[in-house]
Amino acid sequence: MSLSPEQRAEIEAQRATIASTRRTVANGMEAQLYTAHEVLDHGFVRVIDYMGDDAAICQAARVSYGKGTRSVSNDEGLIRYLMRHWHSTPFEMCEVKFHVKLPVFVARQWIRHRTANVNEYSARYSILDREFYIPAPDALAAQSTVNNQGRGALLEGEEAARVLEVLKGDAARCYDNYEAMLSQDGQKGLARELARMNLPANIYTQWYWKVDLHNLFHFLRLRADMHAQYEIRVYAETICRVVADWVPLAYKAFEDYRLGGVALSATGMACIRRMVNGETVTQENSGMSKGEWREFEALLNG
């Protein structure tokens, strides 16, 4: 990861500053504040600010003045109930603001989650750094033969070397031309807002991303899933670890009911009941298509 000495100094200065406050703080998140967690080859995730904790979720659900006589076990039971029954508003009482550095093509996936506030580094005003995402060898894979959105077998040997060479060469050449178009050596140079169109989708951008906990859990349920694209999944997995420190009771319930849970159709539930009653159920008599049956079997087999 390419944090500059100035950025590292700024982070250390931020982490060294202690402020007294009357508001509730989450000790786990206080330990996380401003720390840059490395992701991919040049990316990172770090927490800039947050509001609320596990108790804030329960407080909103009860609309109470404080903890009162409730115990941690009461709070855990309430949070699990809220998660189990898909309540949303109490989780919206907690918010977090991340600073994320990520490849542009990952950002374009990420931005589809529209229930957040985003401010991105502007290539209209500033010149982007010469930093590109180049996949590690174990992330180079062919197109899946069964999933139009997924990856199949790893590329190896000469084929992998050829692809890496193309990725590196194209990225360098595009950035060289980008710089040349901006050049001030005796020429006006093209406007930054136009020159940026020549940059590849694997160049890094940065943004501040502020989201409430309910919508963050929705993002993590989709993007931390094993079927999500690797490059966005590693960001989601990093955020999962941060959230687990911030709201441990809520994250535990989320992990149990969302990440580790499954959703079944009425047809799927009917098949399970038939199996429990000793009936042999196959794709042909299940009432499912081949694709549905394949996914159903994957759920049953873990």
Write structural notes for this entry.
- The strands form two sheets. A five-stranded antiparallel beta sheet has the order 1-2-3-7-4. The chain has a two-stranded antiparallel ribbon with strand order 5-6.
- The longest helix is centred in the middle third of the chain and has 26 residues, at 157-182.
- It is built from 14 helices and seven strands.
- It has 302 residues and is an alpha+beta fold.
- The protein has three domains: 5-133 and 202-259, Gyrase A, domain 2 (2-Layer Sandwich), CATH 3.30.1360.170; 136-200; 266-301, no CATH class.
Helices, strands, pairings?
Blueprint: H1 5-16, H2 27-32, E1 37-39, E2 43-51, H3 54-62, H4 72-84, H5 89-92, E3 95-103, H6 104-110, E4 117-120, E5 141-143, E6 151-154, H7 157-182, H8 192-195, E7 204-212, H9 213-223, H10 230-246, H11 248-259, H12 266-276, H13 283-286, H14 290-301
Antiparallel strand pairs: 1-2, 2-3, 3-7, 4-7, 5-6
Number of spatially distinct domains? 3
Number of strands: 7
CATH class of the largest domain: Alpha Beta
CATH structural architecture of the largest domain: 2-Layer Sandwich
Question: Mind telling me the C-alpha Rg?
Answer: 24 Å
Helical stretch tally:
14
* CATH fold group of the largest domain: Gyrase A, domain 2
* Biggest sheet: strand arrangement: 1-2-3-7-4
Percent of residues in helices: 40-55%
Question: How would you sum up the major sheet?
Answer: 5 strands, antiparallel
Structural class: alpha+beta
The average pLDDT score comes to: 91
**End-to-end span in angstroms?**
35 Å
The string of secondary-structure elements, in order, is: HHEEHHHEHEEEHHEHHHHHH
User: What coarse outline follows from CA principal-axis ratios?
Assistant: flat
Note poorly predicted spans. Answer: none
Note the beta-strand portion.
5-15%
